[in-house]
Prior knowledge:
Shape of chain A: globular
Order of helices and strands of chain A: HHHHEEH
Number of helices of chain A: 5
Strand content of chain A: 5-15%
Largest sheet of chain A: 2 strands, antiparallel
Oligomer: homodimer
Amino acid sequence: MDADRANEWADLLKAFAHPTRLQILAELGKGTRCVTDMEDILPVTQVNISQHLTVLRNAKLVDFAQDGALRCYYLSRPKLVEGVLALISADH
Amino acid sequence: MDADRANEWADLLKAFAHPTRLQILAELGKGTRCVTDMEDILPVTQVNISQHLTVLRNAKLVDFAQDGALRCYYLSRPKLVEGVLALISADH
DNA sequence: TAGTAATGTGCGAACATTCTAATATTATAC
DNA sequence: GTATAATATTAGAATGTTCGCACATTACTA
């Protein structure tokens, strides 16, 4: 594996590698969710969720559709995300 | 996803999330390698490789067989490792 | 247009990771 | 047992990540 690819892939994997972000990704695997939906489920602040969503957006793992004041987030690469979660899950 | 599982999985993914470690894992995907083999391939010091191998060992992604002074490293969960690499690779 | 709900941003402290340099350990060969 | 090859460990500086706080923005509603 060449160094460029290794860097790119590592950046992508870093986006996965946080418990809150994993929970967000798992939740979005069930369907579109807005930030308040996630606030109801996760034991962290709105600000923190928003920060993690920024990381996930930068990694192009999620995107959103604006609906009035709401931002409806969804997985932009569901196969990748669900594949990774399934692999790890299978390994236990 | 419950918090315990999220933490556990995040720890595992952190082990993947470094360019040098990804290159080590990819190399071990081709077969057993000792540390000097990796030194020949990677542009980093022996010490640094050893440190990254420690991280990978702690995550139970690799293990080694001692052969005299050599330590022959191999993937202890090849399906997981190769699965993750294949998924990311497919996504490009 | 003032108020409020939903979400985002910038900053800085706390914490974690990575790398380098020096040194240690272990096994073999002489 | 001394030398050498292979690998690991320790310590500390540099760097990166995360989080809380305060505040900003945007869109709706009264």
